[in-house]
Design a protein that fits this description.
The structure holds two protein chains of two kinds. By secondary structure, chain A is mainly alpha-helical. Chain A has seven helices and two strands, in the order ββααααααα. Helix content of chain A is 69%, strand content 4%. The chains are: A mainly alpha, B mainly alpha. At the A-B interface, β2, α1, α3 and α4 of A face α1 of B.
Chain lengths: 226, 140
Amino acid sequence: MHEIGVRETVQFAGFTFNWETLCMTMTWLTMAVVILIAFLATRSLKLVPSGWQMVVELIVNWLHGQIDAMMGKSGRFLAPFIVSLFMFLLVSNWLGLIPTLSSPTNDLNTTLALALIVIVMVHFLGLYKKGMHYIAHFFQPTPVFVVINVIEEIAKPITLSCRLFGNILAGEILIIVLLKLMPIWMPIPAVCWLAFSIFIGGVQAVIFTMLSMAYLANAVKEEEQS
Amino acid sequence: MIDLNATFFAQILNFLILVAILRALAEAEELKKNYQAQLAEAREKAQAIVDKAEKVAASNREASIQDTKREIEQMKKAAQAEIQRDHERAADQLKKEIVALSLLAAGKVVEKNLGASENEALVGDFIDKLDKDKIGDLSC
């Protein structure tokens, strides 16, 4: 079992990497799992889905419904990104619940990276779709509001990343603590917490994805109205 | 517990790679689906062509059967007509022969011209001969 809060680091080309999060182990494992699921789901498509195809089709259809509801048809091109984000988060949140493994999302580096990708996409798409009109909306309703608007924009990635990071890290810490506190013949609290962590992992993946969609919808959808 | 370092950039890269891979997978699937749809369409078309050909062949066969039947009918009619002709010819010939024979018999009767009893015998004999050789519905 890994020690909480202490990260094994590795130096490469003058940069410091968190070895365990980074992937080489956990993130890459998550990616491998996601790709494997996607591959299994699409390997032999049938009209009446079964097995992995059904699971993935359920997720993808649900996300497509959300995208359509939030962004309209113009948001459809973001579907691969949204689906990838959700699958990655779901798998990585649950990966940490397997003993000896840890979630890539229990590292702020990962969650902040994902949040920043989303926020950069929001601003880029906003500028691309609306041009100067997008910049102007920071000064509404009065130019004084630019301060509040900028704070809001800065707060978005921070809240997005810290929420996910805190939830997942807390879940893993508590599992380890409970296992150490309780004698082995009384596993009920740990099992309960494990079940709760599975739930939390799913919920956090949903929240992160839905908030990302909401932010992206702001950039994409308003263009439709104007 | 919280130490931001180069892992951050690595994670950005990792996630973008994942999106790219999943996108490629989805596109490949789309391509495959299109390809399969095209294949199905082609198969349908081929089936339609085969069906049409079969229909044409069936109608051709029907037509040829009708032709053959008509030909047989014609041949039958021709054969019957020929038989009728032969029959008539044979009857004519027989008539001719009977006339000749009658003349011959008459000649003989006149030539001999002996007694009335002998005449009667001769004529009776001839008539007997006629009865014996009488053929079908020949009228004599």
